[in-house]
Amino acid sequence: MKNRASSAGLLCLALLCGCTGDLALAGSATFAARSDIAIGQPNILPSQAVGLGNGRLGAAFWAADGLTVQLNRADTLPGRLSPGQVVFPDLQALTADRTFRGRVDLADGVLEEQGGGITLKARVDRQADRVIVDLAGLPPDTPQRIVLQLWAPRAPLASIEGDIALLAETWRDDTVPGASGKRFGSIAALRAIGRDSTARVVDARTVQISARPSRDGHLRVLIAAPAFDGARAASDVARSTLATAVDVQATAAWWQGFWSRVAPIRAESKDGIARYAETLRTLYLFAAAAHSGGDLPGSQAGIADLFSSSKDAHFWDPAAFWFWNLRMQVGANLAAGVPELNQPTFALYRNNLQAIQRWTQQHMGGRGGICVPETMRFDGKGVEYESERFRPFAIVTHSCDLAWSDTSNARTLTTGAEIGLWVWRTYQQTHDRDFLATNYPLMAEASRFLLAYQRAGTDGKLHTEPSNAHETQIDVRDPATDIAAIRSLYPAVIAAAAELGRDAGLVAQLRAALALTPPLPLMAGAPGAPSAATVPPLPVFAASYVPTSPYRNGENIGLEAVWPYTLIGIDDVQFDIARRTYAQRPFVYQATWSYDPVHAARLGLGDEMAAGLSHLIEVYQAYPNGMAALGENPTGEFYLEQAGIVALALSEALAVQDRAGPIRIAPALPAHWTMSGSVPLRDGVVVEVEAVDGRLLAFTLDGGSGQPLEFVTPWSDQSVHVLADGRQPLRIDSARFPFTPARGVRYRFESSDASAAPAFAHETEPRVKSLGRASIGFGPPCCAPPQGYVTSADNTADP
Questions:
Q1: Which pLDDT band, with edges at 50, 70 and 90, does 466 fall under?
Q2: 659, pLDDT greater than 90
Q3: Contact, 679 vs 263, CB < 8 A?
Q4: Quick check: 11 and 23 in contact, CB under 8 A?
Q5: In terms of Cα–Cα distance, which of 550, 536, 529, 667 is closest to 603?
Q6: What are phi and psi of 345, to 5 degrees?
Q7: Phi and psi at residue 623, in whole multiples of 5°?
């Protein structure tokens, strides 16, 4: 168990001086290590598992039977079946020791444990799809058994190839609704690098290897679980994966490089909310990196599927993807400066573009373009199939289907628009023209479909009907989602087409349609609300132009224009309406995916954001690995979406760039929060914010390109001192000011009463974090008997 040598102040120094190399890497390690998961006692239950991954292969680790590891992949479709569980039954000496300790080392991507004189280090290899378990301190002459197993009704082929034991299975996706007809499979294989290694088949679903450690007590176990569909012999696939040279430093270097790219945020507050939120953000980014290395998102339905410890159990259709539960992850990754984590999401829709076009033409009245199904199968079909395993009977629903019954997403029209907007925002931040050119068809085809769906009404406006306000109002007219999507996507497509020199005809159509698109729907304020006391009552945003239509789900659709569509900035005439809408929103802290903290941050409501984070964490964050449960009662699957909300909200609290307005610095600082963090914005601009006890002290600006910017700050009664590369101080006497940065110059803006920079505790060892009834990590075991305790004293009968 290593100590961290670098101090907490090192990160602040690296941020201020723009350092690179070893200093910046040390700072990033310090930032990540603040959120290491402490394991103070054996985590013996599957619900206590901690996860590691390389983007394609994930693994859950818990201490049952010494050590149990579940292997997970995203491409074992349609059921996302696990390649298997691996058990180390002879490691119980490790976990039986009362001084057992462990940690998840985020900076290096390693699980470390020690106890009974044994040390364990486990990692998921970045170079090959395998888990590497290194053991030391083992009795040299005692064999260690490692068991690989599956469960009914799985039907693998169990075999041995020399010293390799493996389970391999293939199947065809040809039974459930929407079946693709494609062949899929899973494989897992074991090899031990020690002495006298032997492999054997135990039964039809179980294989085992046994090996003695080296003379100095070391044993390395390789657990391979690569992609497999039966096209190659299982033994060849297993051998090639296991034969790759082991370089554990390459995996550590990858993780250190990842953290050096992440925009760090640190936070403290006396009530503990800030520190806890910081940890959840860091754990989210760790999980996001572990899930985001293939052609499919590792997470679906908001779940951390690659960290699963529940065998093959999935509450939601594991073949389908819900974008509502992915979009906070897309936003959080972009806000953290790691847009590469979103590549699997864009690939999912881009690679299925033609399939989505066919689905749209067949199910949406022959229209062109793409109506992206909100619950879309991995092959582009809008079919969601929920088996009877967790329900009284099987359920089939369609998304983007005019002929389907009035279900949650049958007429949800805006998923494609959201995806297209994230393509454009990624380009705005990175200026990666190749990325834009590759993904522009998603933008253009989504806009073509919406154009085809809009119909002129008697008022001369273009309307969408029937259409769902996502899952909350069904088959209404002009949902707020449609209007916000059109008003956001069409200008983005126009700008992207101009950048790429494409689609002049489409651009003309979009301009004409924008002029005829209705405004966002309004309705009178809620009865009993302060705005309702006025005559007439002050308006709030409605979910649709049919505000009395019943709600079917707990989504605050009236606030979609605030986020993700970001139509309403601080200068918008409807900003006050948006704030009233938030205050009167019908669903308060409704689910793990509740966007309440993000909306609060966007609306400059810092204390509301903090309260929302605290409430949602205490209600839903049920697992000690930082993951949430779907409801208030854990069901066994780890939900990643809530940590994604936390990550996104913290970035929004530090800096927001309105769609066509100023950069708002520290727009939603909660009272008494101390924060230091970096937020990448458009055009390569990065701002780094420092705040103490709820007051903005300073911010720095990097990446200016000579284009004029405008800043809005909380410094209404203070002067602002500006330093360029530490020299030539300027003075600004305004809370809102324009500024044109020179290319390549780093600027620092300080308030006239700036005090000491934020200070954060240096933690050399991981500790359990707690917030109300929520916690992350495991404390030491309680109730040790006193010295000299004799068991027999409790075994005598009462007189």
A1: very high
A2: no
A3: yes
A4: no
A5: 667
A6: -65, -50
A7: -105, 145
CA-nearest of 52, 42, 47, 34 to 624 is 47
Judging by beta carbons within 10 Å of its beta carbon (0-12, 13-18, 19+), is residue 359 exposed, middle or buried? Answer: buried
Q: What angle do CA 408, 409, 413 make, to 5 degrees?
A: 140
Between CA 91 and CA 222 the distance in angstroms is: 16
State residue 217's pLDDT score: 97
Residue 566 contacts residue 572 (beta carbons within 8 Å): no
3-state class (DSSP) for residue 690: strand
Q: Look at 532 and 640; give whichever has higher pLDDT.
A: 640
What's the rounded Cα separation, in Å, for the pair 447 and 360? 13
Our CA dihedral for 520, 521, 526, 532, rounded to 10 degrees, sits at: 80
| Predicted TM-score (pTM) of this structure | 0.94
Per-residue pLDDT averaged across 684-697, rounded? Answer: 95
- The stretch 411-417 carries a mean pLDDT of 98
24-72 tens-digit pLDDT: 444 567 889 999 999 999 999 999 999 999 999 999 999 999 999 999 9
Residue 682 near residue 710 (C-beta atoms within 8 A): no
Q: How far, in Å, are 11, 81, 131, 234, 264 from residue 154 at the CA level?
A: 49, 9, 22, 17, 43
Tell whether omega for the bond before 226 is within 30 degrees of 0, i.e. cis. no
Cβ burial, residue 762 (10 Å; 0-12/13-18/19+)? middle
Is the pLDDT score of 19 beyond 80?
Answer: no
Percent of the chain exceeding pLDDT 70 equals: 94
Q: How many helices (H) and strands (E) does the chain have?
A: 17, 39
Cis peptide, bond prior to residue 392, ω within 30 of zero: no
> Do the Cβ atoms of 789 and 98 come closer than 8 Å?
no
Question: How far is it, in rounded angstroms, from Cα 317 to Cα 381?
Answer: 13
DSSP state of 307: G
Query: What gap in Å lies between CA 617 and CA 596, rounded to an integer?
Result: 12
Q: What is d(CA 579, CA 603) in angstroms, rounded to the nearest whole number?
A: 6
d(Cα 173, Cα 184) in Å, to the nearest integer? 7
Residue corresponding to tokens 């590497």: 132
Distance CA(375)–CA(408), nearest Å, equals: 10
In order of 532, 556, 617, the CA distances from 589 in angstroms are: 23, 10, 10
Residue type, 152: A
Dihedral angle sign, alpha carbons of residues 498, 501, 504, 509: negative
Sequential DSSP letters for 616-653: HHHHH--STTS-B-SSSS--SPPB-HHHHHHHHHHHHH
Q: What is the dihedral of CA 270, 275, 277, 280, to 10 degrees?
A: -150
Tokens of 783: 């109730």
8 A C-beta contact, residue 123 and residue 131:
yes
Closest CA relative to residue 410, chosen from 387, 386, 385, 382: 382
Return the biggest CA–CA distance within the chain.
98
Cα 731 to the chain's mean position, in Å?
41
Q: Which one-letter DSSP state was computed for residue 19?
A: -
Note whether 71 and 59 are within 8 A (CB).
yes
Phi, psi of 236 (to 5 degrees): -70, -40
394: left (phi over 0), alpha (psi -120 to 50) or beta: beta
- Within 13 Å of residue 503, how many CA atoms lie on the same side as its CB? 22
Cα dihedral sign for 607, 610, 613, 619?
Answer: negative
Rounded Cα distance between 309 and 72, Å, is: 9
Strands 674-680 and 727-732 turn out to be unpaired
First to last CA, the chain: 50
Sorted by sequence, the CB contacts under 8 Å of residue 525 that are 6+ apart come out as 531, 532, 537, 538, 539, 540, 580, 584
Q: How far apart are CA 66 and CA 146, in angstroms?
A: 11
pLDDT given at position 408:
86
